[in-house]
Amino acid sequence: MTEVARNARQTSRSLDALAGAQGADITKGLKLDTTGHRESGGSLFFQTEPLDYTLPMSLPQGKADNQILGVVEALRKEYAPREVVLVSKDINMRVKARALGLVTDDYQNDKTLDDGDLLYSGSLALPADFWTRQSKTIESWQQGSYTFYRITGPIVASLLINQFVFFEAPGEPPLYARVTEIRAKTAVLKTLKDFNHLKNAVWGVTTRNREQNFAMNLLMDPEVDFVTLAGTAGTGKTLMALASGLTQVLDDRRYTEIIMTRATVSVGEDIGFLPGTEEEKMGPWMGALDDNLEVLGKTDSGSGEWGRAATNELIRSRIKVKSMNFMRGRTFLNKYVIIDEAQNLTPKQMKTLITRAGPGTKIICMGNLAQIDTPYLTEGSSGMTFAVDRFKGWPHGGHITLARGERSRLADFASEVL
Questions:
Q1: Second label for 417, Cα 20 to 30 Å away, from 25, 143, 149, 207?
Q2: pLDDT tens, 197-233?
Q3: CATH number for the 116-191 domain, one of 2.40.30, 1.10.1760, 3.30.1050, 3.30.2010?
């Protein structure tokens, strides 16, 4: 029933399908369909004959890993001067292979990005000469409380739909906008709602920096169905997602309820099974929810003790905590779904969760790629990286990387130096 056993069965099915389709002799190799690849006519061979190899005495001969290394060594001698490469996810085996002078490589097909620094940030600083270069060609118009700008030039090639752009220069008027349309060599920018101002507070919460304001514009936009928020601890991901969720569920009636889930991966040693119902089992994992609800409960200062207690009760009734294990086959209608600690999800788990969305549902994914607790995932292969990369440029999706911590000076300093 384990993941390893499932993978082994899937491998057997794939081999059976390959051999069965061709009716071929497995000992002579199976032709592979390599259409679309640079090299054609590849074959899959199986090591069925005993090979003559010698390994150092320090490597026990009966161990499966060492037998594989022996086969690689024998193939290298047999097919010299052709290069024989051992491809494995087992880091220890790769280290041993290099010690024996064998060429090794890791799998590449599970990596969305080779380097976490290449991840799409969701925002772009406009060049210092932006206004002077665009002054003759820029076209602007007013629509409601928003100003639109149509820009041209080489910068358009580097823009994506729902990407945020900003211009900050001394002595120049600042610009904070979102790309709403790209056609050929022109792009349309739409100015943002300023959630830094108290009059636009969301459930009593105002944003404290530029990136938080970008994120709140995505969270409060009914046209954006999928939002990803990345950032270190204390950048306000959970607080903003909950505040905008409560406003849209209780005040605007845009969604019927908030559904919150997260990957249940321990930071340290597992403490074993938890008692109770699904909601009670998820309770200890949802400390972040309780902490943020406590903050949001204090924003309503004019209603007194009884009023706050009634509000808290109402809030609790509209937030459902669900386990990820029971998501398969579900459909969420008009729900506001928050997926916390999304960096611990595999691409397959991420796909399972996002495809639960029915009409009128909005999904928020939050995570910190520097805090991956799953041993089999890296920044490049995390489901969150996968989602950010695949959804960039989609008109109904948006991403922002939150840069500044707003938790406390202690937490900010710890993020930098530890």
A1: 207
A2: 999 999 889 999 999 999 999 999 999 999 999 998 8
A3: 2.40.30
